[in-house]
Design goal:
The structure is a homodimer.
Chain A lengths: L30 H13 L8 E2 L1 H8 L3 H13 L3 E4 L3 E4 L4 H25 L2 H19 L3 H17 L4 H21 L11 H10 L3 H18 L11 H6 L4
Antiparallel strand pairs in A: 1-3, 2-3
Chain B binds a DNA duplex through helix 3.
DNA sequence: CGCAGACATAACGTATACAATAACCGACAG
DNA sequence: CTGTCGGTTATTGTATACGTTATGTCTGCG
């Protein structure tokens, strides 16, 4: 999915405006696709934390100019997936220990609270969809496709949050899940994914039976178990530590 | 509105304003200052919802080229303060009824929960600072400077969230407060500001005495009273409503 | 032989130029 | 008089070019 995925701007001729009542916001031509590709690559750990993302290289790969790449990079930076250093370019964010703690604290607070609303609003189709996602995730895990599993797990949690009907909070959770994927990459043990057990299936069961409170409690345990499975140690190598170490004023 | 000095980031130096084309010795871009100016103007309702933000006009006003303006606009768009319509440019977001509901629901969930952590971590200096902010807000209200009061109110809530120590959630609350300011502009009664009473002072008292739970409950009442003071009615004029009205499938 | 300073290179930041598209207005026909 | 079609204009989207800065290397001097 990387590389291709941009519509060719060949003269389509009779592309009249049938968009009076058609597309939602399909204005972004190929930039959204590029964003998705890069985002997926980061979430799937194909781009590891600390990897440098040169604008020229990305522009070359995706066949657009640096202008578009900069837009994508900026969006990723606002979502905290990449870090933009003033004169040094972009790199995949390496979450700090504090960031990791904050992210999981936020998830604990928001995702659990959202379960009650989700339980009230969930439909049969939603349950079907969620079971499908969970099954795909399990399959990926069995096939040792950790990258895919991580992405699917994040998508599952994001989908869950969407059920609440609150788009604002759902978007926030989606961001948190993406960042969690980065945290997994840095502080997680290789070969030991967070959502390894059948927690997601259990979660679906609770929601399907309308047990919102129980689902929230279960989600709390689920997230705590993920967090505790991480080995959050202070990293010896942190670039801006120098000032701290030597107590130099800025 | 041009040339309003903002707080300088601690990262590297300070930049007064965007200088004319030529040597920018500051190196670091002054785009953050432009962002702050536009953001403040929106939050203070000097730019009202629906107002169009032409790139050329902004570029001319701030003395930079459209490139920088686009970056600022995009950031504002990701924070939902401006809406970017594909070929029509940027305009100040006019929050829908659903958005307003979502935002206040999110604030209710997050801000209240954060009060407990804030009560545990608050320091004397924080209390001093908060009282100062609340006093400024009251002064602005007495002087009928609604614009300033609205901005200060949003800043107060954002500052409160910062006390929790969770930067991720604090940033989220800050966004929600900015959006709330927009909601106030659309659905609030003129001459009747949300945080009119002395709720903020009471909130500080509760936090200063370590009553986190009480503070959370008070915050809940506070936010609900703001929300209920709004007149959230269905807007008769919503561009995409046509599909809804005529039940045209997409 | 080691360090320091300068130069070259490469990557980012900004501006400008070009192209595409949608809105607006005028003209013409029914 | 009205509706529709075509042209014009204005504004955004994209690309490219240029300037700035940081980094790495090379050379000269101690």
């Amino acid at each position: 999915m990387s590389g291709s995925g941009q519509m060719a701007e060949s003269t389509s001729g009779d592309q009249k405006q049938a968009s009076v009542s058609g597309g939602k916001k399909s204005g972004d031509k190929g930039l959204d696709a590029i964003y998705q590709s890069v985002s997926d690559a980061i979430i799937e750990h194909r781009l590891k934390p600390g990897a440098r993302l040169r604008e020229d290289a990305l522009a070359d790969v995706f066949g657009v100019s640096r202008t578009g790449i900069r837009k994508v990079l900026q969006r990723l930076a606002l979502e905290q997936l990449v870090t933009l250093t003033p004169r040094r370019g972009a790199s995949v964010t390496r979450p700090s220990v504090d960031e990791a703690k904050d992210v999981f604290e936020a998830r604990l607070l928001v995702e659990c609270a959202l379960m009650e609303a989700a339980a009230k609003r969930i439909t049969e189709a939603d349950v079907e969809d969620l079971r499908n996602m969970a099954s795909q995730e399990q399959k990926a895990l069995r096939n040792r496709e950790q990258q895919t599993a991580i992405k699917l797990s994040a998508a599952f949690h994001a989908r869950l949050a969407e059920l609440s009907g609150n788009r604002t909070l759902a978007g926030f959770v989606s961001q948190l899940c993406s960042r969690s994927s980065l945290i997994l990459a840095v502080y997680g043990h290789s070969g030991h994914l967070g959502c390894e057990s059948h927690d997601h299936e259990n979660l679906i069961d609770l929601l399907a039976t309308g047990e919102g409170v129980r689902a929230g409690e279960f989600m709390a345990r689920h997230l705590k178990s993920i967090e505790s499975s991480l080995s959050i140690f202070e990293e010896p190598e942190e670039t801006p530590d120098l000032r701290d170490i030597f107590a130099l004023n800025d």
